[in-house]
Design goal:
The structure holds 2 protein chains of 2 kinds. The model of chain A is unreliable at about 165-170 (pLDDT under 50). Chain A is α/β, with parallel strands linked by helices. Chain A is about 70% helix and about 10% strand. In chain A, helix 2 runs antiparallel to helix 7 (about 175-200) and helix 9 packs across helix 10. Chain B has one domain (about 5-90, about 155-240): 3-Layer(aba) Sandwich (Rossmann fold). In chain B, the strands form 2 sheets. A 6-stranded mixed β-sheet of chain B has the order 6-7-8-3-9-10, with helices on both faces. Classes of the chains: A alpha/beta, B alpha/beta. The interface between A and B is medium-sized, with 25 and 26 residues.
């Protein structure tokens, strides 16, 4: 154990002394999540909307006024018939249509309930989600105010429909996806580079000739990155919760545990890469092209998997990030527990075992 | 010279498929001896050295290092030997002292023992004031001398040196050999490979490998007499041809 400790200490020194490594480890993840996050979650000002007011009474007029007054919306068209909605969206500059049912105000005042429909163009899923959230909030606020004035409970039901992307895949997906990408990239790339560096400089031979066992060398290489990647995970989660307001509905503990599992998976992949790669260049090349592109393209992080051709869908099944994204989504957004994610977790564990077995086989061959 | 045997190799064979890298090697090395292990590139030196160090296993034959059978207790052997390679000496981004501490840690030297030993080795090199310098700021000669000292941080019985002086200037090489003599005088066995024939003359005994076999093994002076040549260089060329 003491031997291992000395070795791990040295690994930390390598990391902390190399400013480039530090940059990649800590600055890059934060930069990436901020960039991706802000690109995806753009702010909204004066979004053009259409109004289909079948009621045209005081209440609807007040709500419309409130929408405009908020500064988020700008009314560009008044519609007469539902059939016009599609045409309006096709024109392209309208991002949402607000539909008031006929007799809205009467129904609201008499029965305390009325329905308003928000139809958004979800081909830009994020904007659509945001617009609907804002509009819903404004309408809800209005109904609260009315309740106070009138002294009884009114209900405004807002119904939200996302055109073109009904399930709104890919909106909150971005945060789990970025997490998956950053973790696999950093963990796998950094370990594979740090192991191949020892090979390249010939120090691996010296280490193998020492009383350290090969397994200890690998563990010593990996431990610092487990720790640092875990720190990264927490940073990413903090940023996503406090900066991007992505909720964590489920257990934080479970989420952290799954992340740890995924980090170990990425590291075992990194070890495997280092057993194939002869030098740091090759290791980096494999890490970037074998990890980054598939993670971005095939994990469902940017492009929904359901929309892929069959072959790519099949290929995405063997992408570890895909499963991680599913788990994180389930825990963070749906708030489900272990019962609903254990299958995906088993798949992650399967990947870990696979990569480790392959590495051990390769490692032994190289030794002889 | 002390006649205690610290390395004993008998009928060592190492085959890679049909290629025989080590063909029936037999030799003994004594305590405190400087044993030169010579041979052309590809003669099988590195293979034999890896086996002696417990990094590789022989196809057949017996190898006994520091009183232990390498085949069955490679790990115990590793703790009793030191190793220095030509390719890599020390970690460039760590200081002299940190490198020493790392290897002391890996070899299980305890803290107090290390502090004394580290000082002792630095004093020997006259580098006490430079312990906080990064290795990357040192010249190759200094690095190699330091690497040799670090290889002895755990007081090994035997130190294996794999072409320790390649690329080092003649003056530094001379200084390096002085360190080797000093270590040997203290009872450390030195097992060294080299391509410099003047260095071969410094060895107590040398063996010369040709195509996986040991073609000659004796003191440098005896070898020159036996083969009727005037220098080790001539002997080497004669045997290799």
């Amino acid at each position: 154990m003491k031997r291992l400790k000395a070795f791990i200490k040295k690994e930390f020194m390598h990391i902390f002394r190399d400013s480039r490594t530090m940059l990649i480890l800590f600055a890059m993840p934060i930069a990436q999540i901020l960039i991706f996050g802000y690109v995806v979650v753009s702010d909204i000002n004066d979004a053009k909307i259409g109004i289909l007011d079948k009621s045209k009474d005081v209440v609807t007029r007040e709500i419309i006024y409130k929408l405009v007054a908020s500064g988020y919306f700008q009314i560009s068209d008044y519609l007469i018939h539902e059939n016009d909605i599609q045409a309006l969206f096709r024109r392209g500059d309208i991002s949402m249509v607000v539909v008031f049912e006929s007799g809205f105000g009467t129904s609201f005042n008499k029965e305390g309930e009325a329905n308003v429909q928000l139809i958004a163009d979800a081909s830009d899923a994020n904007t659509a989600r945001l617009l609907c959230n804002y509009a819903e909030g404004i309408i809800y606020q209005y109904s609260l105010e009315q309740n106070k004035l009138m002294g009884y409970a009114n209900h405004l039901n807002t119904e939200v429909r996302m055109f073109y992307n009904e399930e709104l895949e890919g909106v909150y997906m971005s945060i789990p996806g970025i997490m998956a990408m950053i973790l696999i990239l950093i963990s796998a790339m950094m370990t594979s580079i740090s192991i191949t560096r020892e090979k390249e400089f010939g120090s691996m031979e010296v280490l193998l000739l020492s009383p350290l066992r090969p397994m200890q060398i690998i563990v010593g290489k990996v431990v610092p990155y487990v720790v640092l990647s875990f720190v990264n995970t927490i940073t990413i989660l903090l940023i996503s919760v406090f900066v991007f307001k992505v909720p964590i509905q489920g257990s934080v503990l479970l989420l952290l545990f799954v992340s740890l599992l995924y980090i170990i998976l990425s590291l075992s992949l990194g070890i495997f890469i280092s057993t194939i790669a002869k030098n740091q260049m090759v290791a980096m090349f494999i890490s970037l092209f074998a990890l980054m592109l598939p993670t971005i393209l095939l994990s469902g992080f940017i492009f929904p998997i359901e929309n892929m051709p069959f072959l790519l869908q099949a290929l995405s099944l063997i992408m570890p990030p895909r499963w991680f994204v599913i788990i994180v989504k389930k825990i963070m957004l749906q708030g489900v527990g272990l019962m609903y994610v254990w299958k995906e977790m088993l798949i992650l564990i399967g990947f870990i075992v696979l990569f480790l077995v392959l590495s051990v086989k390769k490692f032994k061959v190289r030794l002889l | 010279m002390n006649e205690e045997v610290v390395i004993k190799v008998s009928h060592l064979y190492k085959k890679f498929g049909h290629f025989t890298a080590n063909d029936d090697l037999n030799f003994e090395v004594f305590k405190g001896e400087i044993f030169g292990f010579l041979g052309a590139n590809g003669a099988g030196k590195t293979t034999a050295m890896r086996i002696l160090c417990g990094l590789s296993t022989p196809t057949s034959g017996e190898v006994n290092v520091a009183g232990l059978d390498v085949g069955t207790c490679a790990d115990a052997v590793k703790a009793k030997i030191g190793y220095m390679s030509q390719k890599f000496s020390l970690y460039e981004d760590l200081t002299i002292w940190e490198n020493m501490r790392l290897y002391a840690g890996i070899y299980g030297v305890n803290k107090n023992e290390f502090r004394m030993r580290g000082e002792e080795l630095l004093r020997e090199l006259n580098m006490c004031d430079e312990r906080n310098r990064l290795i990357s700021t040192l010249s190759l000669g200094w690095k190699q001398k330091l690497a040799f000292m670090v290889a002895m941080i755990h007081k090994p019985q035997i130190v294996f040196l794999d072409e320790p002086t390649s690329g080092v200037d003649p003056i530094t090489r001379r200084q390096f050999w002085e360190l080797i003599y000093e270590a040997a005088a203290n009872g450390v066995t030195i097992f060294v490979t080299t391509h410099y024939m003047d260095e071969a003359e410094y060895c107590d005994r040398v063996s010369i490998m040709v195509d996986g076999r040991i073609e000659a093994l004796d003191t440098p002076s005896q070898l020159k007499i036996d083969h009727n040549v005037s220098s080790m260089n001539d002997l080497f060329l004669k045997l290799i041809r």
